[in-house]
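note to self: dont lose this again. the chain is below, predicted strucutre after it. 138 aa total, dont forget to put it in the shared folder this time
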Amino acid sequence: MHRTRLAIGLALFLFGMSFLWFTPAFLGTAGRPPGEVWAVIEALVAVTVLADTATGWAVHRGLTWWRRTAVVGAVTGAIVTVLWWIAVSTVSAVPNVAANIGVHWVGTWVLLGLAVLAPGADRPLGAGLYPPPREPGS
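---
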């Protein structure tokens, strides 16, 4: 159970860190592209990375507030993905645009779906699957 929460928390952390690919430093261009949208993207990337990191930590520690941070991370991640898609369309020769958008779009919606729809995800893994042990002689 501990290893499962650790793996899920680590996956959430790594997914959040992958949003750093949306910053101008990872565009593969010679300089910073023009436009104020890149400053907005960088700020939203920072919020997304922090939210997904907090979500991973909360899942790993079994804390109940992970859903709120997952929703924040998913919503800001979706906004960043759309903004980046619009902004990168004006920059030439950026590699892996479709893959970058696809991975983050699908991952964002999976995270949001888990946060909103996962029944009993606030309980420890395996809770409620087995009845509590009976006392001897009862």
